[in-house]
Write a structure and sequence with these properties.
Length: 636
């Protein structure tokens, strides 16, 4: 049929119940969304105690009780009308500023939308008013009528939602299992509780207590206590406080030490003006701030709270207000990265307590058998001399004087890994009598070196325990921080190659690397094109001595192929420097003398971030004497 004779479709206005169900599909896509909307209303009402109860993942029943300001009978009627709210007040000219939002929510369709797809009852009492209740079934309302209020306090509101989505059976087909829906509700309550530590929360799931958080004090201490209750004790004990402000934007919260990390980003939370949001910027910000300290597949723990003028953030990007848009996203991002890096720098050489706890947890007391004991000398040998218990390795004379003092850590060369002998003496040791020359254990946070084990681990005695240092991981961090200092002072020193190395790559790989030749030159790596798909390396960082330039260039090509456009180029090169430092640091298998061991410890104490290597692994484990005594039953 020609377009000219097509019948003109009639434009019809949808019935109110259909409009409400459409709105329910936008705002209330699952039980957790309904819980979120109703709890946010309770928070806006000034509640200090909020109780949530669900059955069958919230599909069968949701009950939310609060001790907020409550509503009168007339308020109940208006509250169930679409786009009715007490949270937006018109100005003298009747205009309403939708960007100036100071409450958790204002979308008037949430409550009527929930009521339009369920069987809902609301009872409430306001100060100086009699309690009243209304019933709504699939949008049809009964009431208000007098009620015996049974809420959380003298005033407040109780909302019961039964058979969610029964009026829209098609929606039920898209619900996940009861366990998945219950977990979504639990996650919602946790996020709201993190943002409101001064409010007590409880959650019952099928009649069983699932969550219970007492109200915490105002301030950072109360906030950390609530975060610890949700994110775990390890986070509470290893969190760094964040507090910064820039151009009207304030950032607060806590971030974990790098050595406290996870295999996913589920323990990273962002709150904007008290509202929990899921923002892709958060992942980029945290990755940029921690990329010095963690491998790409590891993720730190953090809970960050951004507060700014509501006019500078749009909270209505998403119908459920799960996302926000900042007017000046660059300022917010820069503030967050700078504050996180400042907190990490202030942590010094501190490593998380989970490192020691993990080590202690792996200790197992087993039956002493000949299969798992050292090869002990025979009885006559033991009687001959106590020193026969120790088998000094050949080639080392502990009576010889130590080499002259100086920069004993400079120029350490890579050595092949040793063939471990589990009945051997320490690779090198420092006699306790030599301690006065090096200092007493109480003089230094990381103690005084006592021995090197397996040409890999340095054992030091502290005032109240021992420290075990991974020499490769520790030196890797020291080299990396030295590179950063050199770069800040004018670029990493270079050493020219007598015979330049030519590296064959694909044309695309060579192009990616050559495009960043200027930045690589700042890192001490001088390159230039050498025909199609080839790169000529003319100088390398002097800090590393001899190195595999060909392998480094190929690794850089792979790195640039995976470059994340969300990170600034300078931030990306910090990761490159980390890889370069890993290749250039002293390896396991390098035998250190006493002065070198103590020099390593002293440099660690003076170097920021030395508690972890560039990939997030700890550089040392500290075991307190009290913990060691517990392992042997000497202390309860």
């Amino acid at each position: 049929m020609p377009d000219s004779v097509r019948p003109r479709p009639e434009i019809r206005k949808l019935p109110p119940d259909v409009v409400n169900r459409i709105a329910a599909g936008e705002v209330v896509e699952r039980p957790a969304a309904a819980v979120k909307e109703l709890v946010e209303n309770a928070l806006d009402a000034g509640a200090r105690r909020i109780s949530v109860s669900i059955e069958a993942g919230g599909l069968k029943r949701i009950i939310i009780e609060d001790d907020g300001c409550g509503m009168s009978a007339d308020d109940l009627l208006v509250a169930l009308e679409r786009h009715a709210t007490s949270k937006l007040v018109p100005d003298a000219g009747g205009r309403v500023d939708l960007l100036n939002i100071h409450t958790m929510g204002f979308r008037g369709e949430a409550l009527p939308s929930i009521a339009s797809v369920s069987r809902c009852s609301i009872s409430s009492r306001a100060t100086g008013e009699d309690a009243a209740e209304v019933f709504v079934e699939a949008g049809r309302m009964e009431g208000p009528r007098p009620a015996a209020f049974t809420g959380r306090g003298e005033t407040g509101t109780r909302i019961e939602v039964r058979d969610l989505f029964y009026a829209t059976p098609a929606r039920l087909k898209f619900m996940k299992g009861e366990r998945a829906e219950s977990m979504a509700v639990t996650d919602t309550i946790k996020r709201l509780a993190m943002a409101n530590p001064h409010v007590a929360f409880s959650l019952e799931n099928n009649g069983r207590n699932s969550l219970r958080y007492a109200a915490e004090a105002e301030g950072a201490s109360g906030q950390l206590a609530r975060l610890g209750a949700i994110m775990g004790r390890d986070f509470r004990e290893n969190a760094l406080e964040i507090d910064a402000e820039r151009e009207g934007v304030r950032l607060a919260g806590f971030a974990g030490l790098p050595t406290l990390n996870r295999g996913n980003a589920q323990m990273q939370f962002l709150f904007v003006n008290g509202r929990p949001v899921k923002d892709r910027m958060l992942n980029g910000v945290i990755r940029a701030a921690y990329q010095d300290f963690l491998a790409r597949d590891r993720h730190p723990l953090a809970a960050l709270f951004v507060d700014l003028d509501p006019e500078y953030v749009d909270v209505n990007v998403h119908p459920a207000k799960n996302e926000v848009r900042f007017r000046d996203a660059g300022n917010v991002r820069g503030l967050m990265i700078g504050a996180l890096r400042h907190a990490l720098a202030a942590a010094g050489h501190r490593a998380s307590t989970t490192v020691a706890n993990s080590a202690l947890g792996k200790v197992r007391i087993e039956e002493a058998t000949s299969a798992n004991l050292w090869s002990l000398p025979s009885a006559p040998e033991r009687q001959a001399s106590p020193s026969s218990y120790y088998r000094q390795p050949s080639g080392i004379d502990f009576d010889q004087p130590l080499p002259p003092s100086g920069d004993v850590m400079a120029g350490l060369q890579e050595a092949p890994p040793p063939a471990y002998r589990y009945d051997a003496a320490p690779s090198a040791r420092v006699e306790p009598e030599a301690a006065p020359a090096q200092g007493m254990p109480s003089d230094f946070p990381l103690g005084v070196a006592r021995a090197q084990l397996h040409e890999t681990y340095v054992v030091a005695q502290t005032a109240d325990g021992i420290v075990i240092v991974d020499q490769h991981a520790a030196h890797e961090r020291l080299v990396y921080e030295d590179m950063k200092r050199q770069m800040a002072a004018g670029g990493v020193r270079r050493q020219a190659l007598l015979i330049p190395d030519v590296v064959e790559l694909t044309e695309d790989e060579a192009t990616r690397v050559l495009e960043r030749a200027d930045e690589l030159a700042e890192l001490g790596l001088e390159i230039e094109p050498f025909g199609a798909g080839a790169i000529c390396v003319r100088a390398t960082p002097a800090l590393f001595g001899e190195m595999d330039a060909m392998g480094l260039i190929r690794d850089l090509a792979d790195d640039f192929a995976e470059y994340d456009a969300g990170l600034a180029l300078k931030e990306r090169f910090e990761e490159v420097m980390g890889n370069m430092a890993c290749r250039g640091s002293v390896r396991a298998g390098r035998r250190l003398n006493g002065e070198e061991m103590n020099a390593l410890l002293r440099q660690m104490e003076a170097t920021p971030h030395s508690g972890q290597c560039n990939h997030g692994r700890p550089t040392y484990v500290e075991l307190k004497l009290a913990d060691i005594e517990r392992l042997f039953g000497r202390r309860g």
